[in-house]
């Protein structure tokens, strides 16, 4: 097995058969020991965080499979905290696609002059560039097309898939009286150029609230998977 990339929260290996193996680590993003799903640095290490992230990811990717939504998921090994996936190439050097149901986080920071904290948003989709050096800047459909990262057609495919996937997650959380405020997804292309959901869907990629209170990733895993 060959280590291809060591990320903030996962390591990516190439398997003998060409598939990839994602190893979920106990590192979580945040700043100064406080968890923040929007942060670009590892803020703390929590024992069991990797396994919990994988359990939620497995749960959601299996739901998406039932609904025939294309993803990279093949299988998961919960003891090892690893997941086997279809290798994908990302758009440009990587994009994050965010779907928002309430105004919090970076959206509120940017548009606070015009929106109230927690204001309802209608599955609003926005794309950001994975560019730590430039704090993951948001990018418009026109700009994505102009710089050659996505065609307009691909943009619309991504937007639609994002809203479908976010709705699946939102509905699952709602079954446990948890409300999804926002979620961040990643996509790539497989060897046949099909667009797939890649990476993970765990507490670290979303903001979930119960009775108006933010639910930490480990707590979310307990509520949703058990
Ligand atoms: N099926 C896949 N094929 C190729 N790359 C993938 C696939 N699934 C996930 N990845 C990539 O693997 C990496 C996982 O590592 P991790 O989530 O720790 O990265 P990260 O430190 O958050 O860095 P990044 O800012 O790139 O997400 C991400 O860069 C993600 O885009
Ligand atoms: Mg990541």
TrEMBL record:
InterPro entries according to UniProt: SAICAR_synt/ADE2_N, SAICAR_synthetase
Per its UniProt record, what Pfam families does this chain match? SAICAR_synt
SAICAR synthetase/ADE2 N-terminal domain: which residues? 3-214
Q: Which reaction does it catalyse?
A: 5-amino-1-(5-phospho-D-ribosyl)imidazole-4-carboxylate + L-aspartate + ATP = (2S)-2-[5-amino-1-(5-phospho-beta-D-ribosyl)imidazole-4-carboxamido]succinate + ADP + phosphate + 2 H(+)
- Top-rank lineage group of the source organism: Bacteria
Give the EC number(s) listed in the UniProt record.
Answer: 6.3.2.6
Q: In which pathway does it act?
A: Purine metabolism; IMP biosynthesis via de novo pathway; 5-amino-1-(5-phospho-D-ribosyl)imidazole-4-carboxamide from 5-amino-1-(5-phospho-D-ribosyl)imidazole-4-carboxylate: step 1/2
A GO term for molecular function: ATP binding
Tell me the Gene Ontology biological-process terms attached to this UniProt entry: 'de novo' IMP biosynthetic process
Record keywords: ATP-binding, Ligase, Nucleotide-binding, Purine biosynthesis
HAMAP family (UniProt xref): SAICAR_synth
Alphabetical list of PANTHER family matching this protein: MULTIFUNCTIONAL PROTEIN ADE2 (PTHR43599), SI:DKEY-6E2.2 (PTHR43599:SF3)
* Similarity comment: family membership: Belongs to the SAICAR synthetase family.
Query: Know the name of this protein?
Result: Phosphoribosylaminoimidazole-succinocarboxamide synthase
Q: Provide the taxonomic classification.
A: Bacteria, Bacillati, Bacillota, Bacilli, Bacillales
